[in-house]
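Structure tokens please, single chain.
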Amino acid sequence: MRISEFRNGQARDRFRAAYERTLEELWPGPRTALDITTAFGTTRVYRTGPQGGEPIVLLPGSGGNALMWHRYIDVLARRRPVIAVDTVGEPGASVQTAPIGDGRDGAAWLDEVLAALEVPAAHVVGCSYGGWLALNHQIHRPGRTAGLTLVDPAGFADFGPRFYAWLIAGGLAAAAPRPLRPRLARLVGNSAILESELMGLMRASMGFRRALPVPPVFSDEELRRLRVPSLFLLGERSAMHDSREVADRLGRLVPSARVEIVPGAGHALPTDQPALVAERILNVAGR
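Here you go.
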């Protein structure tokens, strides 16, 4: 099995320079950067906020890193410790050294990170692929997760033509001249392309070869194993899955879960409705 890595040293150095520049531009306040050794590679995390209390752990979506949460850091860190993670295998400051073949491997990786941080219990927030990782961690390595907020998580439908068309359209729109992007963002239903600094970082990551598993659909048996308080935030217009079908399935299998379908929002829910998502995270995690 392959691991995620840069095509060559030049691509790696170009990305790292862009990453450090974007980090300084977007991070809203003080932070402590830590590099944690795991069986799957070195994981970069950023800690901020108060010292005591149960932390909020933020996991990004596919192709992203801790900086995707930059609009959330300040509001969350006013009330709770925050740990923002660069997922191993994604373009960021983490470095993968061993393959992640499935959800069990992803769960093992996250458990090692939390153990090294001496976090006995955390509220884990995952977006898209990060939501899939967070769910796998609770399913396969329960004990360190006190609660979950899953923001349009993967793992509830196979990726189909609609989703890939949405990705391609978003990529083309992101490459358009900046004055055209607001109109294109509305047209393709992807507000993330308005994040100019992150789009620049995405372009700098073009030399990165991602080798993480495509999330399979969770089985009924797996979902029935969810035991912690969980909020599923689903975009009404998500290109990843039919949100009403996901809500109905969760209602049958996980009665303790709360499900909210956000009107008008798509798979780019964190940028479609940042104030709503931040409020929901704090409500579930406890203020």
